[in-house]
Specification:
Layout (H helix, E strand, L loop, with lengths): L2 E7 L3 H12 L7 E6 L4 H11 L5 E6 L7 H9 L6 E6 L2 E3 L3 H8 L4 E4 L3 E3 L1 H10 L11 E2 L28 E5 H6 L13 H11 L3 E4 L6 E3 L10 H13 L15
Parallel strand pairs: 1-2, 1-4, 2-3, 6-10, 7-11
Antiparallel strand pairs: 4-9, 5-11, 6-9, 7-8
Length: 262
């Protein structure tokens, strides 16, 4: 089992630096780090190049021109540059618990994808975290929201069984799946405009293809650096795609890794 850590980012190198610092401190390292960059400026490239010099595993920086929010497009490009057979997907504003990679690897099963939650950092505390480059947190910390999510007890996951249904709790910032399952559904649907629905649709199509969903609790913990939420994309388009995917049990999107005929 070879593992790729897939990180999506856009123009926030100070946050990405903390992400990469937390990756370096993992109890089990990924086999490769692939950064899906949706058009960041040179400052992000400089940061990644600096990390490449001493990073313990290979870093690939997949970039395309900034033409607005096109996360689905850059993720599909990143898929094509991943050599590993298992993918752990996070965002570029997520600091990882030291056993994050280990937990995803341990819980991975065939015909199953995993999704976890995140612990949010308060706004003022997030500024301190960035300034002092903090990557380690205690669940008693006053700067955390929803502190119980930061309690580490991985054995709890023995009680959780995979389900053949999607979840409103699913977030693309904490997912893992087999590469073959992502390619079987043709990756992300590039018809999504803006932020807000693409991860749910991606997961639903895997479920439609007989891949079960398992939620992770009290393990694979991550800490989300505060920022203002980006405006959602075209909700009418997103709603229509989701309804079609669910009702018609759609597996492959047309506008994905490969451009298929309708």
């Amino acid at each position: 089992m070879k593992v790729a850590l897939l990180i999506s980012t856009y123009n926030w190198p100070k946050a990405l630096e903390l992400v990469l610092l937390s990756v370096q401190k993992q109890s089990i390292l990924p086999d490769e780090v692939v950064i899906a960059d949706d058009g960041s400026t040179e400052s992000t490239k400089f940061l990644i190049d600096r990390f490449k010099e001493t990073f313990p595993v290979k870093i690939k920086h997949i970039w395309h021109e900034d033409i607005g929010f096109t996360k689905t497009v850059i993720l599909n490009k990143a898929f094509q540059n991943i050599e590993s057979n298992y993918i752990i997907q996070i965002d570029g504003d997520i600091i990882l618990h030291k056993h994050f990679i280990k937990n995803h690897k341990t819980l991975a099963r065939e015909n199953t994808f995993l999704f976890g939650s995140r612990v949010s950092l308060k706004q003022v505390y997030s500024k301190k975290v960035i300034k002092n480059k903090i990557t380690k947190f205690c669940f008693l910390n006053a700067g955390l929201l929803r502190k119980t999510r930061a309690i580490y007890f991985p054995l709890f996951n023995r009680l959780i069984t995979p389900k053949a249904q999607n979840s409103s709790k699913l977030r693309g910032c904490n997912m893992s799946y087999w590469k073959k399952d992502a390619f079987a559904i043709n990756g992300y649907n590039e018809n999504f405009v803006g932020w807000g629905y693409e991860d749910f649709d991606f997961a639903q199509r895997m479920i439609n293809n007989n891949v079960s969903a398992k939620r992770i609790k009290q393990a694979a913990i991550q800490f989300h650096i505060y920022h203002k939420e980006a405006p959602k994309g075209n909700t009418k388009i997103g709603d229509a795609i989701q309804i079609e995917t669910a009702q018609n049990k759609k597996i492959k999107c047309i506008n994905g890794i490969e451009k298929l005929k309708a």
